[in-house]
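Quick one, T. Sequence first:
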Amino acid sequence: MKKEEKEAEKTYNFIAEFYHNYRTKMNPRGWFYNEHLEMPMTLKLLGNIGGKKILDMGCGTGIYAKLLTKKGAKLKGFDISDEMLKIARKDNPKLDLRKGSLYKIPFKEKFDIVYAALAMDYVPNWDKVFRNVSNVLKKNGIFIFSTGNPLAEMLKSVKVGEEKLKVFGIRNYFEEDKVHYSKWDLKNKKVRVPSYHKTYGTIVKTIVRNGFEIIDYEDTFPSKKSKKLFPEEYKQYSKYPYFCAFKLRKK
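Structure tokens:
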């Protein structure tokens, strides 16, 4: 297991139970960044998935898996975190959810759709990920992945007087494969979450180089419900796209 995989595994094993409860119990209408920012975008790209054979890459605690199964998907999934998988299997006892990573997919069969929700950021070698995805996708199969928006990754908080402002251009846009850390403050648990920045140019070239074509793309915009539920977050993230998602077809 590579260094970046070990780091992601350690982080999510540590926060698994609290993270799941934070999204589903402490915030019964969902956590802003997932349920009200990333998920609406990715679900839009997934479209009608009834009867489709789908692979969930980085299934976490099975929140997506549960939702897509209710929508009629024939879903299987994997995650690198044992603690995340324990929760996912408990909530989805009928699903085949295995231990695995983006570098080592634990399935050999072919799927109609493969998706990775906010999982690509944790690994620097996207060529290997794309090769692995291609191996488990049917011809003309669909690969959807969401990731940190390369534009938003250039932002950094700067304190001006008593106010914190988000400023563009603090980080080097062209500096890739260097690990950056986001600080998550989940009430009583503070963790550093690693991510690897890619430019738009690198992402597009990686897609093309590995035999995929872009058929759709979305930038995140907060859900309508979040305007009342999370007014401060809505105000901030309706000004720029924090995440983005690509919908690809295997040639």
